[in-house]
Amino acid sequence: MTAPPRPLKLIVAMSVFSHIGYGGSRVLSSLFALNLDASPLMIGVVVSLYALLPMCLAVYAGQLVDRLGMRLPLAFGALMIVIGLTIPWVRPSIGAICVSASILGVGFMAWQVAAQTMTGSLSGPENRASNFAFLGMGFSLSGLLGPLVAGFSIDLIGYRPTYLVLAALPLVALIGVWWFPGWIPQRRSSPKRGPRPSSFDLWRIPALKRTFFAGGVIATAWDLFNFFLPVYARSIGHSASAIGMIMATFACATFVVRLVAARLAKRHGEPPVLVGAIFVTAVGYALFPFFQSAWALAAIAFLLGLGCGCAQPISMTLIYNLSPKGRAGEGTGIRVMINQLTHVTIPLAFGAVASAAGYVPVFIGCALMLFGGGEFYRRSSARAPLAVPVRPPINPP
Questions:
Q1: Average pLDDT, stretch 216-226?
Q2: Residue 178 needs a FRET pair 20 to 30 A away by CA distance; which of 68, 150, 368, 369 works?
Q3: CA atoms of 397 and 183, how far apart (whole Å)
């Protein structure tokens, strides 16, 4: 395996800083809202607001990345994350948390679409899976650090100051993108004038459509973990530090599995690995209702992290490979849009279920959804093998 190019190393490093702020805020906002006496349904509203505007804007963001390049979307994303993290510090209320969640969602969506498109554009067919896995490892590292920073900061200095601690990190990414832009590759050519094809054209590619579906299923599982684990763990008496460490165990597993994800895909093919990852995640959710100790929850979180962590870079690779030339950012935007749709609807639906019937139906329901989604993707992939176009990399600066 060849070493990642310098621009890829830099975008991964900047993504770590941005994602620590964003990922830590999800734990912080859930626990802060609970501290302000919010119900599980209200927590579901907060989590859904992280995804509402990104769901509406992700495809447009992908089109802008294809037209304008990566620098402006990256800078905009980092700036929005910084702004979103300062709002609850200024005004500590449920309303401020909701506004913060909306802004943070838009900021990280813009960053995510640009970073993923940049990773694909710097890669050739022989190293695209490994480069996406490398980007995924960066997100895993930040996913590990974000809950730890949030959990320990809450216990040491309180909720409001923790927002400022988290805001300092995406500020580093903003400085790196805006004041030192030379490492960001430029667009290959000027955008063409005239009408642009409809995004619905991408839905007509069967392999791309089922990959969008599989990515949405695994995004649902990931989002429910981020949403329900803090609420469930707090309801059974665990501290913020313990919750942060359980969530960090999940992130640690995503890091570990991404060390071998590209090799697994090369040996077995992307679709079978993606199906296996979905089934592993389903098993983890089926186990959740039977355990309450922090160690047991951490072990289950590790299992979930293996499944979710393997699935994400595989789906990113497939979507970039299968998107038509010049529309990879748009394909990434559709992937993000579908993921955000699940982020909006699932926390609200399962939050209502948890408020009415407790947490067991939520975990069992998610396990059944994952088993069904994995089996559907397995059968549809077996009927229609992939045909992947070859797309050369952009030469890094």
A1: 80
A2: 150
A3: 6
**How many angstroms separate the CA atoms of 124 and 195, rounded?**
29
- Each residue's pLDDT tens digit, 347-380: 667 667 766 666 778 788 888 888 888 888 888 7
- Measured N-to-C along each axis, helices 294-322 and 261-268 cross at an angle, to the nearest 10 degrees, of 60
Angle between helices 294-322 and 328-357 (to 10 degrees): 150
Phi and psi based region of residue 20 (left: phi greater than 0; alpha: psi -120 to 50; beta: remaining): alpha
The reported pLDDT for the residue numbered 206 is 76
How many beta carbons lie within 10 A of that of residue 357, not counting itself?
10
Tokens of residue 387, six digits: 């045909």
The residue count for the chain: 397
Per-residue pLDDT band for 189 (boundaries 50, 70, 90) equals: very low
Instruction: For tokens 């509406």, name the residue.
Output: 56
CA dist 304 and 179 (Å) reads 38
Q: What is the pLDDT of residue 171?
A: 94
Among the residues of the chain, which ranges form H helices? 6-35, 40-68, 71-90, 94-121, 128-157, 159-178, 200-203, 206-235, 240-258, 261-268, 270-287, 294-322, 328-357, 360-383
DSSP secondary-structure letter at 392?
A: P
DSSP state of 70: S
Q: Are 366 and 220 in contact (CB under 8 A)?
A: yes
Determine the pLDDT at residue 362. Answer: 79
One-letter amino acid at 118 equals M
**Whole-number Cα distances in Å, 20 to 105, 108, 147, 149:** 14, 11, 8, 8
- The three-class DSSP label of residue 21 is helix
The pTM score is: 0.73
pLDDT band at 265 (very low <50, low <70, confident <90, very high): confident
Assign residue 326 a region: left if phi > 0, alpha if psi is -120 to 50, beta otherwise? left
In the CATH hierarchy, which fold is given to the domain comprising 6-177+204-383? Growth Hormone; Chain: A; (1.20.1250)
